[in-house]
Write a structure and sequence with these properties.
This protein is α+β, with helices and mostly antiparallel strands. About 40% of the residues lie in helices and about 15% in strands. It has 7 helices and 4 strands. The protein has a 4-stranded antiparallel sheet. The structure holds inosine-5'-diphosphate (IDP). Its cofactor is Mg(2+). It is found in: Cytoplasm.
């Protein structure tokens, strides 16, 4: 089963959106297999956003993601990587469709509430950056046979 890394960013935590966001993915039928509220150390933030190192907003991005606690999660399900991205909405909330997390709750690209891995390679990389193997839980739910 595919896994992805999702994270409620500091703005989403401050705005009390953890429960709503978890609920959306649960109701969709995905399964939570790891979660923690944490403060991101500077070095982890720089690694996580390493692909944006040369972008003009990199410093701002690292400052923002380390500015308060985040809620880091690993979700499991069929096609969860791509489906979670579409449930998050476009990176810039002005382009995000209503019904998506960013479309419903965010107003600017710098404070867009949620992060989600954009490919199988980034999911693997980000899960291992944020979680130790023993922090992920493997379990089955009887409801799965009504989803798949
Ligand atoms: P994603 O989060 O939808 O995958 P990325 O292009 O990987 O989007 O960008 C990472 C994060 O960097 C975005 O979620 C957003 O918070 C921030 N970001 C992207 N473009 C800009 C920008 O032009 N100004 C400020 N922040 C930006």
């Amino acid at each position: 089963m595919e896994k992805t890394f999702l994270m409620v960013k500091p703005d989403g935590v401050q705005r009390s959106l953890i429960g709503d966001i978890v609920s959306r993915f649960e109701k969709k039928g995905f399964q939570l297999v790891g979660a923690k509220l944490m403060s991101i150390p500077q070095e982890l933030a720089e690694q996580h956003y390493g692909e944006h190192k040369e972008r003009p907003f990199f410093g701002e991005l690292v400052d923002f993601i380390t500015s308060g606690p985040v809620f880091a999660m690993v979700w499991e399900g069929e096609n969860v990587i791509a489906t979670a991205r579409s449930m998050m909405g476009a990176t810039n909330p002005k382009d995000a469709a209503p019904g998506t997390v960013r479309g419903d709750y965010a107003a600017t690209v710098g404070k867009n509430i949620i992060h989600g891995s954009d490919s199988p390679a980034s999911a693997e990389r980000e899960i291992s950056l944020f979680f130790k193997e023993e922090e992920l839980v493997s379990y089955s739910k009887l409801i799965s046979e009504w989803i798949y």
